Amino acid sequence: MKQTIFIITSIWFLSATTGCTTETPVKNEVSTMDVSINYMFDASNFELNKEYTLPSKEEVKFSRISYLLSNFYLIDENNFKITLNDQYLYADIGTSKTQLTLTNIPKGVYTGIGFSIGLDSNTNHGNPNIYATNHPLSPINNSLHWNWKGGYIFTAIEGKTLADNESFIFHLAGAMNRVDIELAHPFTKGDDALHAELIYDVKELFENPEVYNIKTDGSSTHNVSDTVTLKLFGNMNDVFTISNIGNL
Amino acid sequence: MKKSSIIILLTLTIISCKDVINEIPQNPFQTTPYNFNYNTSLLPPPRIPADNPITIEGVQLGRMLFYDPILSSDSSQSCSSCHNQKNAFTDNNQQFSVGVEGTIGKRNSMAIFNLMWHIDGFFWDGRSNLLRHQAIEPIIDETEMNETIDHVITKLNRSSLYKENLQKAFPETTFNEEIIGKALEQFMLSIISSDSKFDRVMLGLESFTDEEKTGQVIFNSEAITLQNEVDPNNPQNFGADCFHCHGNSLFMRREFLANGLSDNGDKGLGGVTGDPRDDYKFKTTSLRNIEKTAPYMHDGRFKTLEEVVQFYLSDMNASSAVDLSNSPNLHALKDSVYLSPEHKKALVAFLKTLTDESLLTNEKYSSPF
Fold it and tell me: Could you report the per-residue pLDDT of B22-81, keeping only the tens digit for each?
């Protein structure tokens, strides 16, 4: 009898203590990747309110460059896209909001990453009030929303040309103009968090494939389909490059 | 033997779970979470300070403080003296508010509603990052309530009514500056405006008149200068470009912006930061309830909405305090913009659909005394 009680007591004690002990975390099969974006103007670090000469030979100062990224995905070694749903970046050079932590990155071998400048149509025209004010898509947070369900500005570029001291303002929008970016860069995702460094070259916006001249091509747009919008969106395909992806 | 075994088992279990048991607060402070009653398709999700959760008891204490002249040096003025609910919590159409000593302020009293979504600071010049800090300033400002915080604390601690309500709302047993600020913050954060005609139209419960519809199009359309005029019958060709700075469901923008006003000696945000690039930038206020918050601008220089509309359609280059080439947000407005008299009227008609009558009369926001 005593032996039985002892055994029961031992089992009870073990189960009670085990039940109240914090479990050792199991290593997740998914992890994170910090993404930071550095801004360049050709070979120089880019800064707002600094003078730059555009490929059109126009001298300018930029006062704002803001944009939205969405539709992040990874390309695995079998050339499958691993989508990272509902992850967005609101980037604003002026306020240094240029960092993002992508979550739910599965372990694996990858050949590159992809994302979009802008949003898909449903997200673009959805109710923006669903987002908390610190969400990348909150209109209060990003000041990149037209009005009510009118959609988002995908990229805002503002500044002035020095020759005539005239301001320019490009508010580039329209779901049909979304720019899909895919960047090849092999990397392996193991247990540790990754860090990706991207480069955004502002000069590309005004150069490749077509040189943009503010005086002759236009100093303003808020239209989703005019030539200013189409030309500047057309120059966004190569604004991003990857400088590194590695472990933190 | 069986009894002793059970006692041993229970004791072992309790010992093994000691840490868990210790996590249960010994004297939990009980308040009731405040329920924000608004349609979440109209406004963003609530944004509550983590260190000052909104409670029914905290809001009630803040409401008492807001309406009580005990906060002023001669017990003649409360917050509500210059923030009248009937005027969307502005100062009864006064250009400048008058303090307890008869001194006149230099800025127009600001509206109080939907403040939980104000991210980048309070006051016209953004000098307070937190609403609880903003709430204290008028109390100690000699041109306003001209009181000292120490004296307010003494008065409140002497009051059995306030002591009773303090103990319901906060764990503290005596008042201090932080508690006064937090209680006022809770009340002001509780004030929500989302029941205007505009909101009801968005929900499909009402319809705009033809004039209001035209006004909405003008509000949301680009400004086009006379030389670019193409079709005089299409309101989309005569936008007033309001939406760039007042475009989301809160009808405001978080940034402090220069809007082309002439210099009246007030540098706004620049006076706070010392950065010349911030000179003449002021808070971009909400256009909700704009009909009720006259006069307009930081210095109340415009008496009517019609005057405001006319200002934005005027040649700002002639009078602006800032170099407009540095303000791309005014790019489209800086040259004279044309709007016909009918379209100006329609724009004002649309602006008036932003009036929330329930805000002006809601008992939750009225004096508790």
Answer: 444 444 569 999 999 899 999 999 999 999 999 999 999 999 999 999 999 999 999 999
Residue A246: how many CB atoms within 10 A of its CB? 11
**Is beta strand A220-221 parallel, antiparallel or unpaired with respect to A166-173?**
parallel
Residues of A in contact with B328 (CB under 8 A): 63-64, 158-160, 167-169
Residue that has been written with the tokens 């971009």 in this structure: B284
In sequence order, the 6+-apart residues with CB closer than 8 A to the CB of B261 are: B280, B297, B301, B311, B319, B320, B321
pLDDT digits (tens, 9 = 90+) for B326-342: 666 666 566 556 788 99
Count CB-CB contacts under 10 A for residue A97: 16
How far apart (Å, rounded) are the C-alpha atoms in residues B138 and B143? 8
Q: All domains of chain B, ordered by start, with CATH?
A: 56-192 (1.10.760.10), 197-359 (1.10.760.10)
Sign of CA dihedral B140, B143, B144, B145: positive
DSSP characters for B249-268?
TTS--SSEE---PPP-S--B
Contact B323 A165 (CB under 8 A): yes
Residue among A13, A131, A140 minimizing CB distance to B119: A140
Q: Return all residues near B337 (Cβ < 8 A) that are at least 6 apart.
A: B223, B224, B225, B226, B240, B241, B312, B313
Tell me the C-alpha to C-alpha distance, in Å, between residue B320 and each of A22, A163, B266, B316.
Answer: 64, 21, 13, 5
* Whole-complex ipTM: 0.76
pLDDT, tens digit (0-9, with 9 covering 90-100), for B254-290: 889 998 899 999 999 999 999 998 999 999 999 999 9
Break chain A into its structural domains and give their ranges: 27-247
Distance from CA of A34 to the nearest CA of B (A): 25
- Alpha carbons A100 and A69: distance in angstroms, whole number: 10
In whole angstroms, give the CA distance from residue B363 to residue B152: 26
8 Å CB contact of B326 and A160 = yes
Chain A contact for B42 (CB, 8 A cutoff): yes
Interface residues of chain A, partner chain B, Cβ below 8 Å: 1, 5, 8-9, 12-13, 16-17, 19-20, 49, 63-64, 127-134, 138-141, 143, 145-148, 150, 158-160, 165-169, 219-220, 222-223
